[in-house]
Write a structure and sequence with these properties.
alpha/beta, Rossmann fold, Fumarate Reductase Iron-sulfur Protein, Chain B, domain 2, 3 domains, 4-stranded antiparallel sheet, 21 helices, 17 strands, elongated, binds iron/sulfur cluster
Length: 705
């Protein structure tokens, strides 16, 4: 026995051990069940994410679910078969709730998948141990002492560790799986201890074992000697709960881990013996965690320890152990920290170290709860140095905040307080209730915070989009306004000139309208006045068209676009036509005036006009021929992608409307003339000639007066 000094922790109790019933026989292989039920949540943290589909064939050791995040661990098929379902199934939990599980139909072949050896030593030399931690996570290694904390997380974060403690205390009554493992697989455990020591660079390694496991102590010491390992097996007094991590640390090192502090911050790390065994199997044999040793005891014919596949239905295990009639309930775990199972359909989990079939003889009814008499027995027994009666009152009155203030979460739910309570108060049930309520409230708060964050982000995003949209619109408007502004700034005189011209035109039109409204002269002067008005209107229309054409041309140049040749030709032709009409009207007026004045013969003037008109027609024909030639050249040229022209800046709406009205009027007149028959046209010409003749006659008469 080690001569190492031991230190006492507070409280502790000595419940009947009931270990001998199951510790006397060797570990046996469990049954190969027809169906396995594997809850995806096998550790603290996130449930694993399924990698298989219903109907898929799987092999023993194949990863069927991957770790989800860092606080999670993978899950593997414990045997070969077919995935029957991925669905909610009852799990081994006091709540009786279901959880997502993978159900595998075993094919009875128990065929392994291909296993690739992992060179963890090379991996450690090549990195800071990250690859090894990831590998252990993917091999599904979690704490098998009951807490199922992902082991890879316990191997991270420190350069050097003062003390590595291997927990072989197994202090809870009835449970003997670690005892049998230490006795039968001591060499593998020592190999695992050496690996963990190396990964953590631990200066000192201690294996703590209660003094009721002398065979295990002997086996380990022998294995350590054979391996030449510097590991000290420390035998500790049997006192429940010496197997609690904080209690064992206190026992072996006198270090007290305060509330809210991790033991690694104080230079100590703790692993269960079964966990280091699985670390060894994973790193040296590429074996994922697909089975564990579980104690089957209580009201059974063959109590003992079975190496059972994870997911084995608990009913199969109890049948394997030969459960006897008269069982009242089944406890998952030990009698102090375990809980009554809601049903045996659930599958064995990695946390399942013991199943006890309780019979009334060994588990007498605790009787009705009585009021707390504040005797203080619970406080004396509490290894966490809490005030259990206060926690009970706060939990019962739902004052969860006050329970938290009294360090509710330091309670390890060891049950020592309830064990000694003379009022038979199920104290641990109250603490579990309070903890679950607090966790639920925190989960709700987290969900509410997340929802609020999402809402705030949505609002922020909408406002940002609105702002960006407004900025884009403003930029577009500024870009549209910029050319005109620039042109005006560059050539303000031109802009002023155009505006002045437009004002003049408007004034002239107004004067003409006034004159017309005044009625003008009666009788024979009316036709001459009409002719003069028509001439002015034609001038005005021509001037407006010219102004509009100039403006459009200027704007198109400002917009950087070249006017289409066709549009230019059409504009030119239109201008020529308008000019011809205006010239004809002017000439008619001049002729009338000359006839009246008797200064020029009408026939010569008409001949000159005809010659001019012929010239203009010839010019127009030549222009048309040039245009046709250009178009034929363009048609022969290679086609290039059309570049969409930027829209021309809009004309002054009032002006554009006037131009449109004038053009429409002219088009209507042209259409009317085109629709006339030759006879009607001849009649119209005769009428016009008659008007001219009449005007000439009036002019001659005036000249004779
Ligand atoms: S042991 Fe029971 S009765 Fe005594 S103080 Fe604690 S809760 Fe109350
Ligand atoms: S269950 Fe909690 S309160 Fe009760 S003795 Fe254990 S640690 Fe203390």
């Amino acid at each position: 026995m080690s001569a190492r000094t031991l230190y006492r922790f507070n409280g502790g109790v000595h419940p009947p051990e009931h270990k001998s019933e199951s510790s006397g026989t060797a570990i046996v292989a469990g049954p190969l069940p027809a169906q396995l039920v594997l809850p995806l949540r096998q550790s603290i943290g996130n449930a694993a994410k399924p990698l298989v589909a219903v109907g898929e064939r799987v092999l023993k050791g194949q990863m069927i679910a991957a770790a989800d995040g860092s606080v999670s661990a993978a899950l593997h098929a414990p045997t070969s078969g077919t995935v029957l379902a991925i669905e909610e199934r009852l799990v081994a939990h006091p709540s009786g709730l279901t959880e997502a599980s993978v159900v595998i139909d075993s094919d009875g072949l128990d065929a392994w998948c291909e296993r690739t050896p992992f060179d963890w030593r090379a991996a450690q030399a090549a990195s800071d141990g990250r690859a090894i931690r990831d590998y252990l996570r993917d091999m599904g290694v979690v704490g098998l002492g009951g807490a199922v904390f992902p082991s890879h997380l316990k191997l991270a974060g420190r350069d050097v560790l003062d003390t590595l403690i291997i927990n072989g205390a197994e202090c809870e009554p009835y449970i003997t799986c670690d005892d049998r493992l230490m006795r039968e697989r001591a060499a593998d455990i020592v190999a695992g201890v050496e690996i963990v020591r190396q990964l953590l660079s631990a200066r000192e390694v201690l294996i703590g074992i209660e003094d009721n496991k002398s065979e295990a102590v002997a086996a380990l010491r022998c294995a350590i000697a054979e391996a030449g390992a510097a590991v000290d097996v420390v035998v500790v007094p049997t006192l429940y709960p010496s197997g609690g991590a904080k209690q064992l640390i206190k026992l072996l090192t006198n270090i007290e881990v305060p509330s809210g502090v991790r033991s690694t911050d104080l230079g100590v790390q703790c692993f269960n013996v079964a966990t280091v065994y699985t670390i060894y199997r994973a790193l040296e044999h590429a074996e994922p965690v697909i089975s564990r040793v579980v104690t089957l005891t209580g009201n059974v014919a063959r109590p003992g320890n079975v190496e059972a596949l994870i997911g084995t239905p608990l009913a199969d295990l109890m049948a394997f152990a030969g459960e006897q009639p008269g069982t009242r309930e089944h406890i998952y775990g030990g009698p102090m920290m375990g809980f009554a199972l809601p049903g045996l359909e659930a599958g064995l989990t990695k946390a399942g170290n013991c199943i006890i079939a309780t019979a009334p003889a060994d588990f007498p009814d605790k009787g009705r709860e009585m009021p707390c008499i504040r005797c203080g027995e619970c406080a004396s027994a509490c290894p966490a140095e809490l005030q259990p009666m206060d926690l009970y009152w706060f939990a019962r009155s739902r004052e969860f905040g006050r329970a938290q203030e009294r360090n509710l979460f330091d309670c390890i739910e060891c049950g020592a307080c309830a064990y000694v309570c003379p009022s038979s108060i199920r104290l641990v049930d109250y603490y579990r209730f309070a903890k679950s309520e607090i966790w639920a409230a925190e989960a709700n708060k987290k969900a509410a915070d997340k929802a609020r964050e999402r809402h705030e982000f949505k609002q922020f995003r909408e406002e940002r989009e609105k702002r960006e949209k407004a900025e884009r619109l403003a930029a577009r408007q500024a870009a549209a306004a910029k050319p005109a502004t620039t042109a005006d700034a560059v050539n303000p005189a031109a802009a002023d000139n155009a505006e002045a011209k437009a004002a003049k035109i408007r004034a002239a039109m107004a004067r003409a309208a006034e004159r017309k409204a005044a009625g003008g002269e009666a009788g024979s002067d009316a036709q001459a006045a009409d002719a003069m008005d028509a001439e002015k209107r034609a001038k005005i229309a021509a001037a407006m068209e010219k102004a509009a054409a100039r403006k459009a041309h200027l704007e198109s140049l400002q917009a950087g676009e070249a006017p289409a040749a066709e549009a230019i030709d059409e504009a030119k032709a239109e201008k020529i036509r308008a000019a011809m009409e205006a010239a004809a009207l002017r000439k008619a007026a001049r002729d009338a005036a000359k006839v009246e004045a008797g200064t020029e013969p009408v026939g010569d003037a008409a001949a000159i006009d005809d010659a001019k008109a012929a010239k203009i027609r010839a010019a127009m024909e030549a222009a048309a021929q040039r245009k046709a030639h250009r178009e034929s050249l363009q048609a022969a040229a290679p086609v290039v992608d059309a570049v969409p022209a930027a829209p021309a800046p809009a004309l002054d709406p009032e002006k554009a409307e006037r131009i449109r009205a004038a053009m429409q009027k002219r088009e209507e007149e042209k259409a009317r003339l085109a629709a006339m028959s030759p006879e009607e046209r001849a009649a119209l010409d005769a009428e016009r000639q008659a008007r001219i003749d009449a005007a000439k006659a009036r002019a001659a008469a005036k000249g004779g007066q």
